[in-house]
């Protein structure tokens, strides 16, 4: 989850009684709720301040601008995705570095996107990335990189290729389904992301 800053005390409202660091997480939670009903462009720090019962000044102590909030929401989205994928890998056998578990994390990626479309879109437009564009940091990224390295047998260039191929496949499938170009069909997800036919090291 997002690390909550405790370096300074936020302004507190008498009604909410926030403690050190609580306001930042409360604003992130409010932002996540807003994403369920509001376009990203229409989310405002002032509106979240009103929901949290604090002044705009208190909000700006944690998020100096809207982009800072969106980056925090993206980090939260990536972490939630990672936990969802990790659970799927464990159900597939627990060996996160194995091919079956790797495929399970890919299917979980697409299903997470379909269940959380606004958060998914925001996450991959505002998350931190490596030089090659692959998401950086967080459980989801570590699982992708670790599984690719295991399949590649330790060769870094092969691992990089497999990571990019795997991400491109699941992200592309998710976007095609979100945009209505393919049906959001569980059976189709299972057929396309199949450990028997994908992510060969050779």
UniProtKB/TrEMBL annotation:
<dbReference type="GO" id="GO:0000976">
    <property type="term" value="F:transcription cis-regulatory region binding"/>
</dbReference>
<keyword id="KW-0805">Transcription regulation</keyword>
<keyword id="KW-0614">Plasmid</keyword>
<dbReference type="Pfam" id="PF13305">
    <property type="entry name" value="TetR_C_33"/>
</dbReference>
<protein>
    <submittedName>
        <fullName>Transcriptional regulator, TetR family</fullName>
    </submittedName>
</protein>
<dbReference type="InterPro" id="IPR001647">
    <property type="entry name" value="HTH_TetR"/>
</dbReference>
<dbReference type="GO" id="GO:0003700">
    <property type="term" value="F:DNA-binding transcription factor activity"/>
</dbReference>
<dbReference type="Pfam" id="PF00440">
    <property type="entry name" value="TetR_N"/>
</dbReference>
<feature type="DNA-binding region" description="H-T-H motif">
    <location>
        <begin position="44"/>
        <end position="63"/>
    </location>
</feature>
<feature type="domain" description="HTH tetR-type">
    <location>
        <begin position="21"/>
        <end position="81"/>
    </location>
</feature>
<dbReference type="InterPro" id="IPR036271">
    <property type="entry name" value="Tet_transcr_reg_TetR-rel_C_sf"/>
</dbReference>
<dbReference type="InterPro" id="IPR025996">
    <property type="entry name" value="MT1864/Rv1816-like_C"/>
</dbReference>
<dbReference type="InterPro" id="IPR009057">
    <property type="entry name" value="Homeodomain-like_sf"/>
</dbReference>
<keyword id="KW-0804">Transcription</keyword>
<keyword id="KW-0238">DNA-binding</keyword>
<dbReference type="InterPro" id="IPR050109">
    <property type="entry name" value="HTH-type_TetR-like_transc_reg"/>
</dbReference>
